[in-house]
Design brief:
29% of the residues lie in helices and 26% in strands. A hairpin with a 2-residue loop joins β2 (34-41) and β3. It contains 12 helices and 16 strands. By secondary structure, it is of the alpha+beta class. It has helices at residues 57-63, 116-121, 123-126, 130-152, 191-199, 238-259, 261-267, 281-290, 303-313, 363-372, 381-387, 401-408, and strands at 18-30, 34-41, 44-51, 70-79, 87-96, 156-157, 163-164, 176-179, 182-186, 204-212, 225-234, 277-280, 316-320, 343-348, 351-358, 394-400. The two termini are 29 Å apart. Strands 6-10-11-16-15-14-13-12 form an 8-stranded mixed sheet, sandwiched between helices. A 5-stranded antiparallel sheet has the order 3-2-1-4-5.
Length: 429
């Protein structure tokens, strides 16, 4: 091991202890008699202090190295109430583990703003920024919280294919791939396979999976590759799945608030745990139109409308009972009014982060739904046949990881929340 401790493991109670640390040079400041070096690792930043007559001159000279140099520094912990951590490191050995051979493309400390595209071109450097680290630590908590919750609730984690033979949700926003002698597509959703798992008797499942959508969009809300956190439940109705959606959202937010307090502070975010309201599509139309939106019944909800929902109903809103024909073919029509479906979206801080529905579980109803959308049932034969083998009523939903993280962290662009984003223009690094 090239280090004895991470910075977060140190304390002022270790005064006088000899340690070896490793990381990057965050900043260097020199005065007439003292050189200050800030050493950064993945857990924090410590001040390394080089005073004349206390530290050998050759060590102090070594401290004057370029920022972002990767180093190993050994020395003595010294308690100091004036230091940010309450202690600092007095060095007795410095090793430059890999001298820089090019200029760092932007200021990692954030003191000089850098364009997002430049940062993404050098994402491996951008990840050293404290705010960038905080975003991905928060995403890690979101994922862990989701897995912990549904594992405790008795759900089975599954894996679904990334290569499929036909569109999961209809439409043409698919990436075509050459698959031996056939044409196949990158999966735009794990939807059909979640349902097959329920039909197979697993009863309750969850999946975290990348999905791919060939949307020709350059907005700050869209990615060509994103991560979905999905569940599917057998022998339930739409409201049962909605209850789990609310529980998941509140659990994740509470976990982030508790476990990522320092990251939220770094990002300047004051995270509130909201009350989640449930309203119908019809109520949304009526309320938005009363605010001058002029939205026709049967229209899909746009980004502008989602901001309107936040303004009218608050930060956390489940919208249910959408018109059947604007939802995916597998969304079950309501018994009392087939023009509406047992489907729902979750809008958080003016952005849709989750969508779901109770599914059609009767094969003939599925065939009719496909035909109404000009989709060929023969291309979904494997899927329809599964429902002929005894499919229970079932429902589920999906949360978009990057969108949820975007709203939690108050990021202005979803690319901030994708470690190596893929969009219409970007396929590297």
């Amino acid at each position: 091991m090239l280090r004895s401790h991470f910075i977060k493991e140190l304390s002022k109670d270790m005064d006088g202890k000899h340690v070896t640390l490793a990381g990057w040079v965050h900043e260097v400041r020199e005065t007439a008699k003292i050189t200050f070096l800030l050493l950064r690792d993945s857990t924090g930043i410590i001040q390394v202090i080089g005073k004349e007559n206390e530290v050998p001159h050759e060590i102090i000279k070594q401290m004057s190295m370029p920022k972002e140099s990767v180093v190993q520094i050994s020395g003595i912990i010294k308690a100091n109430p004036q230091a940010k951590l309450g202690f600092e490191l007095v060095p007795d050995k410095i090793v430059n583990l890999n001298p820089l051979s090019i200029n760092i493309p932007f200021e990692v400390t954030g003191k000089v703003p850098a364009d997002l595209d430049v940062r993404l071109n050098y994402r491996y450097v951008d990840l050293r920024r404290l705010t960038t680290k905080s975003i991905f630590r928060i995403e890690s908590t979101i994922l862990g919280s989701f897995v912990d919750l549904f594992s405790k609730e008795g759900f089975t984690q599954i894996r679904t294919p990334g290569i499929i033979a036909e569109a999961s949700e209809g439409g043409s926003e698919l990436f075509e791939v050459k698959y031996f002698e056939k044409t196949a597509y990158l999966a735009q959703s794990p939807q059909l396979y979640k349902q097959l798992a329920i039909i197979g008797g697993l009863d309750r499942v969850f999946v975290i999976v990348p999905v791919f959508r060939a949307e020709k969009s350059n907005t700050v809300y869209h990615l060509s590759e994103s991560t979905q956190m999905d569940i599917e439940m057998g022998f339930v109705e739409a409201d049962d799945a909605i209850a789990y959606l609310k529980k998941a959202v509140l659990t994740i937010l509470k976990d982030v608030k508790e476990k990522n307090a320092a990251d939220l502070e770094e990002l300047g975010v004051k995270l509130e745990i909201p009350e989640i309201k449930t309203v119908t599509y019809e109520q949304v139309i009526d309320k938005l139109n009363s605010k001058g939106f002029n939205l026709e019944f049967g229209s899909d909800i746009s980004r502008e409308h989602e901001f309107g929902i936040q303004e009218v109903f608050g930060d956390a809103v489940v919208v249910k009972d959408f018109p059947t024909m604007i939802r995916a073919f597998y969304s079950k029509p309501k018994k009392d009014n087939p023009e509406l479906s047992e489907s729902y979206d979750f809008i958080y801080k003016g952005l849709e982060i989750s969508s779901g529905a109770q599914r059609i579980h009767e094969p003939e109803m599925l065939i009719n739904a496909l035909k109404k959308r000009n989709l060929d049932p023969s291309k979904f034969e494997f899927y329809i046949n599964a429902f002929r083998c005894g499919a229970p009523p079932h429902a589920g939903w999906s949360i978009g990881l990057e969108r949820f993280a975007m709203r939690i962290t108050n990021s202005s662009n979803i690319r901030e929340c994708s470690m190596f984003p893929r969009d219409r223009k970007r396929v590297t690094p």
